[in-house]
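FIELD: query
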Amino acid sequence: MDVHGRIREILAETIREELAPDQQHLSTEDLIKALRRRGIIDDVMKELNFVTDNVDQELPSSPQQPICFDRQSTLKKTNIDPTRRYLYLQVLGGKAFLEHLQEPEPLPGQVCSTFTLCLHYRNQRFRSKPVPCACEPDFHDGFLLEVHRESLGDGTRMADSTTMLSISDPIHMVLIKTDIFGETTLVASYFLEWRSVLGSENGMTSLTVELMGVGTESKVSVGILNIKLEMYPPVNQTLSQEVVNTQLALERQKTAEKERLFLVYAKQWWREYLQIRPSHNSRLVKIFAQDENGINRPVCSYVKPLRAGRLLDTPRQAARFVNVLGYERAPVIGGGGKQEQWCTLLAFLCRNKGDCEDHANLLCSLLLGYGLEAFVCVGTKAKGVPHAWVMTCGTDGTITFWESLTGHRYIHKPVNPDEPPLAEQPKPLYPYRTIGCVFNHQMFLGNCQPSDAVETCVFDLNDESKWKPMSEEAIKSVCAPGATTSLPPFPPLCASTIDASVASNEIEMQLRLLVSEHRKDLGLTTVWEDQLSYLLSPALASYEFERTTSISAGNEEFQDAIRRAVPDGHTFKGFPIHFVYRNARRAFATCLRSPFCEEIICCRGDQVRLAVRVRVFTYPESACAVWIMFACKYRSVL
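FIELD: result
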């Protein structure tokens, strides 16, 4: 409806028309009258549907849809509960995004790079509409955040000022840039302290938020956002600014003290660990890791039991979901070693890709949510490349490694170095070479066995002569939920917004076009056979099923159907390939690099018929697995 825009125009007009030179002030009534006259208020009231049924309330694990009083969005069905308190956060444009100073104005209909703002606050997630990248991006979005205490007895009461002052969760804002090819980059990650609004007159305040870059650029400003905060319904008694500032200062002080004590303890633990053996100095024992803002956090704070609600059904499906999230090493300017940057979960999910540590932390959190005893392992792969993966310990002592980047699972059977040389030893199938430490949300253990080689490692985590533990109390003091105000809360997972059938059809049509054009350049005609394309579907479904469950099924029917569809004297060739992105042109370029696929696409012969089938499997967070199969059949002429 673009209510904001229309109201602004009418007010400007009214002020021009009705403000006589001698009359300096227009009352609210005058303005309301002007809006009534033009029928705006009636339009808005028609569009508002107040919902009375609370039967359809979502489980708390599912993120709420943004309630946006913004342009181009109609307020369809807004669960505004009159007994709850809300914080209405408006983003009113940005400025000084100097990296985009030179960017020309996008022409109408032209595809351009966009900014999207993602928010998370106490189990609610929101996403702004994409706006074109510019020096002054035109953000105009409103988000309605519910402010509510879950503690006993407070569940039904509307939060008052003092209750809200005790809610220390910040609003986590992540700014994502999407380029014209659909590639995402993390621009900024910011924790907004919203409680200043509690001390402002009339429960309304405007802020300018300076966003800093990420990783190596965490000290460089990337731009400024104008933000307006408003409590709804307004608070009866506002607190004095002094009370709010004192509370925030006390929290900061308490957090700093806890972090200082943990640092003292960690140094002491490290000294003791080094005294066991001097060689421990070279082991990958990682107690702290830097997040995207360059802040050192204990590694245990990056993991927390995470329940996926109804979005993922099994631990193996969770492993598949983590595997289809894109892999990207942290960007570094210039050459040199690997820039290490662990991401907060919101930044990782909104960007839809991250480093191996981000994948391992998310997979470990999901497996803990499924009630497994899971740990993140930090060590190396071949050639000494640092790596992180996940390990689960069964109740029967079975140790399973989960590779979060591929979804593969490996059973670990230790090699006994004291066995005689001719004794048969288990052959390790996993790619891991050494292991320095393992951790989850409650435990941190340093490997103090004589060798840190994974194949000889014994994972009896209760044996302190093999694994040196950190005090669980010390970890709890800085990593337990709510222990310190500096810990980013974990966001819930969001359901996919991609329509699998529509996406599959789009990619398939684009690929047909690309294949036809490619063959035309080679002087070949292209005849598609729709029935053959359709017959490829079961194969793609069974490949994905196998990736998710490690069980292959339904292959016999597929082979039988193909044998029936290919007449005697004809040859059939098929080539399946798997991607985690939906860019057809990029997928096609990759396919052509494979000699098998190139052979099918450029097939010459008698009665050549081509087929292509695409199947997109969607996962939470708009992650998806894309299976493509190219096939051809032709008469064999010898």
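FIELD: remark
The chain is about 30% helix and 25% strand.
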